[in-house]
Design goal:
Chain lengths: 114, 116
């Protein structure tokens, strides 16, 4: 059963530390999305990639967040330095093409910055 | 302006009854897609159903159907014969495809509680 895999599932870190979240998209999917979910803001699109190239990362705070796809099987979202307001659930989703009919989500990484 | 509006923060339904979750959207694009996702308490996001803007028939997937009214810009989710396992948050989403970019917008969600 193909699925998007995210690691870690949970992360607790101290303010100022670097956090790296990883996502393995479904094999053959060439579009990858990163979302952040909070109670206050709901689901926010942070960035998305097509064929490993970033198409839009305007939703991401540039000073501390970075997103990359070093290869087709791995997408990373990095926060450096982390702040308490970054505490959220971060979801990765993948889809087949730009116009694919669905995006499949991973189980999310619950990040807590203390 | 909100791209996706879900006006029902919470709803209750009796087991085995049907329930409609409302969703309205705002776009000036001709080509777009509408989605519903379910998020149970475990936190994962589960894709339920998709409707393309050019699809003339309402989408159906098992007990889920999407009541698509293009002129009214609404895409309500209908769950027939509710089950206890349907208790979850439900998110309506829209994808706009313009200039080869691909933007997803989510509503604030509706929390559905199915009562035995």
């Amino acid at each position: 059963d193909a699925r998007v895999t995210q690691t870690p599932r949970h992360k607790v870190t101290e303010m100022g530390q670097e956090v790296t979240m990883r996502c393995q998209p479904i094999l053959g999917h060439n579009t990858v999305f990163w979302y952040r979910q909070t109670m206050m803001q709901g689901l926010e699109l942070l960035a998305y990639f097509r064929n490993r190239a970033p198409l839009d990362d305007s939703g991401m705070p540039k000073d501390r967040f970075s997103a990359e796809m070093p290869d087709a099987t791995l997408a990373t979202l990095k926060i450096q330095p982390s702040e308490p307001r970054d505490s959220a659930v971060y979801f990765c989703a993948s889809g087949r093409t730009v116009s694919s009919t669905e995006a499949f989500f991973g189980q999310g990484t619950r990040l807590t910055v203390v | 302006a909100q791209k996706i509006t879900q006006t029902q923060p919470g709803m209750f339904v009796q087991e085995k009854e049907a329930v409609t979750l409302d969703c309205t959207y705002d776009t000036s694009d001709q080509s777009y897609g509408l989605f519903w996702y379910k998020q149970p308490s475990s936190g994962e996001m589960i894709f339920l159903i998709y409707q393309g803007s050019y699809d003339e028939q309402n989408a159906t997937e098992g007990r889920y159907s999407l009541n698509f009214q293009k002129a009214r810009k609404s895409a309500n989710l209908v769950i027939s014969a509710s089950q206890l396992g349907d208790s979850a948050m439900y998110f309506c989403a829209m994808r706009e495809v313009s200039y080869n970019f691909n933007k997803f917008y989510f509503g604030s969600g509706t929390k559905l509680n199915v009562k035995p």
